[in-house]
Amino acid sequence: MKVSVNERGMVSRISDSAMRATYQAGNWMKLGLFGIRNGPVATLADLKKYPWMRNIFQSGKLLHTMTGTRTGPYAKANAIVISDIVTSILDMIRDMKKNPDTLVLHEDLVPPEILYGMGLTPWMTEFLGLALPLVNNTSMEPYIDAAENDGIPPDICSLVKSTIGLVLRNELPKPRAIVSSNMPCDGGMSSYTLIEKQLGVPIFRLDIPFDFYNERAITYFVGELKRMIAWLEETTPGRMDWDRMREVCEERNRFVELEVELWDLVRQKPAPMAGEPIYLSHLIYGICNPGRQRGTRMMERVIECAKELQKKGAGAIPNEKYRVVLWNPPTVVFPDLFVWAEQAYGVSMVMDMLTYNRHPFIDTSSPDSMLRGMAQVIMQGPMARHTRGPAENFFGDLFNLYEQFDLDMIWMAGHIGCKNTQALNGMLREKCRERNIPLLIIDYDLSDTRVVSPDDIRRQIEQFMETVMKAERLDGKGAGND
Amino acid sequence: MNRPLEQDIRELLDVSVNRLVEEAQASGAKAIGYTCSYVPEPLIGVAGLVPVRLRAPGVAGTPLADTYLSSVICPYTRSLLEFALDGKLNPLDGWVHAGSCDHLRRFYDNLEYLVKPDFNHIIDLPHKSGAEALQWFVDELKQLALGLERHFGVEVGDQQLSDAINTHNQCVDLLTSIGELRKSNAPPITGTEFHTLVTASSVSPKKGMIKRIEKIKATLAGSQDIPKHRARLMLAGSQLDDPGYIGVIESMGGLVVADRLCFGTISGLDRIELNGDPITALARHYLTKASCPRMMENFRDRVKTLITTAKEYRVDGVVVQVMKFCDCWGVEANPLVKALRDAGFPVLRVEREYSLTGEEQLKTRIQAFLESIGK
Questions:
Q1: N or C: which end of chain A has fewer CB within 10 A?
Q2: What is the ipTM of this complex?
Q3: Closest Cα of chain B to A207: distance in Å?
Q4: Which of B345, B147, B352, B334 lies closest to B248 in space, CA to CA?
């Protein structure tokens, strides 16, 4: 029996709807089970103590945003990633409540592998500021206001202000200890003086050299990690178990291996995967929660989706016209940016700054080799490598990946509070001009839609696409008529 | 009034590279510009070199620098880049930076890209001051010394460094002896005058300044005709190299008797203890004394120093001035102000630009502050 195009389309739509409904039901089930296991009274008390938790119940909205107009394996990959975000957040809350004695707050660029190795319970201090705007893009504004009302200057990065606001409003769990560093920026580093004082818990700060691509810097930083472990052993019940550390590092290596495979896939034209399955998967399991088996499984499933498309010679988006990198922190206050850009102009986001780092594999043959690997992972981690060291680190990565992924343009997410990268925009413009690379610097604020709204971001992109790229609208809408 | 500061000292602050530096250059010395308190000044002040702490006096706007650094970067660095692009810093023979903060690091990057100085060195400065960080910093200073020797053909050995440290100490001892006169009930020198003297000493060859400071000190003995004041204040904050700012505060009756400024008493006027290897002595001094909020672990020490100083100088209140867009001070000022208030000191926190603007607003704030503390 022959199946017509219309019938195939209908089958595909039904299949996509069924997939969405399945994942939606799965997410609700996770939330329901969390409520049951936690106990209804305790859950209500948690919601009162941590009002930001209410945003998690809006995860259905995020699933709808990311999959509502996407189809096939690409939509499924998005649903997989969002499902894992829900699981990760609920697990973090569960662990935080279950293990208050081993809870350690860690700065976003101090990855938690070592804490896992020590049997501690990590909580990334900045996690909420990064994750919650994805489901509710105004969720951080009360915290930003709290920080500014307490005297933090408005020009400080809004992620830093969000975190300070959470601390000032007593909405972060009180940990046993804090580990932070001098990354990624002065605002973030300085905020820990206030966080330490406000929470009244001991803190260890890692010092990462300015220029770290040399043996001397690695040796210095390995020493810092050893001092951190010794300090944590003195300050918390955590004890380093090198076998457990090895398992974490090996799991991390497996995830990285898969991620590199995904990179190879997306180098193809059209890219069989794009957007959030690339950057959110790295955000959750490359940065926030690395070394977890669940992360490896998630990446395997994303790759399966990409391979399914690759076999058909299809792209993640049906009509890939342009390939772009989003450089700098992602526009989490406009989570559907690429859902829109894909449909409006056929823009496929194949790489971003948080995801693109060199992923050194950790040599797990000895404690020293693991620490050395971890030192490189941290120093060469996202943003750390770009906001430390000379400007060559920033430009080198960007222009390498431009070639590596055969891109058509660069979108620089010009977060107004990121002074480190704002101070490179002049050089960036000239270097792109020399290389004949179309560049859009998007004015926006990482966590505050009152500075630049999603509509304003969209307008900036429309102007660029239509005047610089001479792009045609694929969705039949004109600029400003979305 | 017959005030002790001579016009020629004030004139040293009118330009970035003043006539004393030019005279030294004419006699064969090389002028090294530097931008931060963490650059060990004696290391770039050995025989044959003249350290010049960089300022951008009279900067009237930063349109060129804004194109590269953006308008959300600290106005001090933007002003310096503007001057560099305008050619006003061309007389310098070299630059030494410290990787102190995001703004100064990116200033270094942009200077390297836009101006390409023949000698442009950045010191990789730790954010901690323990034994390992000290060793790191010692190695950094050795690399700088080697770079200076190779590029400028000067000798940066133990003897040369010891001589430079002794000259530095001689100068700070003199300045300290004058600064301490401000502890008295009727200080013979205003905060504006003292800051002029300290700033001039940072931008001019030390040996030439020592003679001038000695002369000024001698004239201070019988000089007690400073303007009447309503309150004794301490001024704390970051880069402030325009004594006119203090002049505005003092014009409202707030006599600045103590300060913690990048061009100032704490910690600019601390002696360098010369025990053993001079490079290590320098590293230890600069890593532990010049306490800026960019050092991650020293908040309590900074607060303690300010409180001790405020008590020693019997101040009635503290003005915390934060330069706009400075992240380190912008964030730290929050717990700092609370700590000073907890210690019983009234505090006024003000934000400011690099150049002296908004004088009337500042006057109003100072006036209101003085009234609020009953002065």
A1: N
A2: 0.94
A3: 6
A4: B352
